[in-house]
Amino acid sequence: QVQLVESGGGLVHTGGSLRLSCAVSGSIFRLNDMGWYRQAPGKLRELVAAITRGGGTNYADSVKGRFTISRDNAKNTVYLQMNSLKPEDTAVYYCNAELIVDVVTTPKGYWGQGTQVTVSS
Length: 121
Known about the structure:
Blueprint: E1 3-7, E2 10-13, E3 18-25, E4 30-39, E5 46-51, E6 57-59, E7 67-72, E8 77-82, E9 91-100, E10 108-111, E11 115-120
Parallel strand pairs: 2-11
Antiparallel strand pairs: 1-3, 3-8, 4-5, 4-9, 5-6, 7-8, 9-10, 9-11
């Protein structure tokens, strides 16, 4: 059973920082792309940042220069360092991982349960 567990969410004031972590556990042969998404009330879920297995990154324009995504393949963990937080960053943040469980299995996407990030004025 593959499981993604997010941690690090919380309540901060404008300008504060948070570091989100997503640990992937279970039967894993290889982790491919990983990413962070967020969804605010009344809005669509959007990609915040993504990272390939090789370390290539992509960011939403709204977070460029403020957020940094990274991963530790040895720990099957992806991180999102969020600095200079703004109220508009308030949302539930979801971790996503594409992985294969064995050498003959095709890639499949998995989602975490989400962690709440709230930025107050």
